Amino acid sequence: MVFSRVRASSGLPCAQADLDHVERIVTASGTSFARGMRILPADRRQAMFAVYAFCRQVDDIADGDAGVADPMAALKDWHQRIDRLYEGVATDALDRILIVAIHRYQLQAKDFHDVIDGMAMDCGAPIVAPDEATLDLYCDRVASAVGRLSVCVFGDSSDNARRVAYHLGRALQLTNILRDIAEDADRGRLYLPSELLTRFDVPKDPHEALYAHGLDHVARILAERAKDHFRAAKAAMQMCDSRAMRPARMMAASYSPILSALEKRGWKTPDIAPKVSKPWRKLRTLAAYVK
After folding, report:
1. Which of 87, 179, 273, 287 could serve as a FRET partner for 97 with CA atoms 20 to 30 Å apart?
2. C-alpha–C-alpha distance, residues 171 and 242, integer Å
3. What is the phi-psi region of residue 203: left when phi exceeds 0, alpha when psi lies from -120 to 50, beta otherwise?
4. Mean pLDDT throughout 88-92?
5. How wide is the angle at C-alpha 255 spanned by C-alphas 117 and 289, nearest 5°?
6. Residues paired with 15 in a beta bridge
7. What enzyme category does the UniProt record give (predicted)?
């Protein structure tokens, strides 16, 4: 692999133009992700930018923001593109950086494919009242799979680090779901599990569910599950490389107050934004790519 202009040795061995291109994808998204990742060394930060850019592109396809005529076909193309990366075949700047990141940090192809499959679940007919197993699979694909890629880039690929990804991904995704019930309803989506909706007599229609009497009970049960996952993630972090877990600790610290604010507000008025203390609003570093 030949590069015309190569980044300084502290970063990934990639062309500066490629690194700049991927960073522009991150900054153009308007997320605070770029600022949050500045705690990482240059090479790991650049690799995370590439992982984020991948997630951003497939998420835009699923949400209909990529301007493609057939989102499912576009996601299928991404499956093939990932396979080609593991054969060393690159077609653009993002591919070239992903290939370097894959080899340097031993990123697993299955995790990339899982993310794409998660985005595919949001294509076509909206997700409405999935059963518990489907909801957990969705959380694993769109959040925990991203976490599995991330912890490797952060510097810990141990079984305990994968447990962090498993639990923290689910904690963040459940928090997002609980925060975005009203926004999701506007898109015809309802991610709350059908079993709980039935138990508390909540309609499975997204808009009708918004002000159902039992919605608060359903949401508080999911909030308890999210807190359980936060606790399990914290316990797993203590058995990992402390320095590598800094970004994961920051994500947990930024989302826990959101969940607390949601619980304080409750879900009788889910269209009213919860009041989150200002110091934590600025730390929501990975919100854009876990949902």
Report:
1. 287
2. 20
3. beta
4. 97
5. 30
6. 6
7. transferase
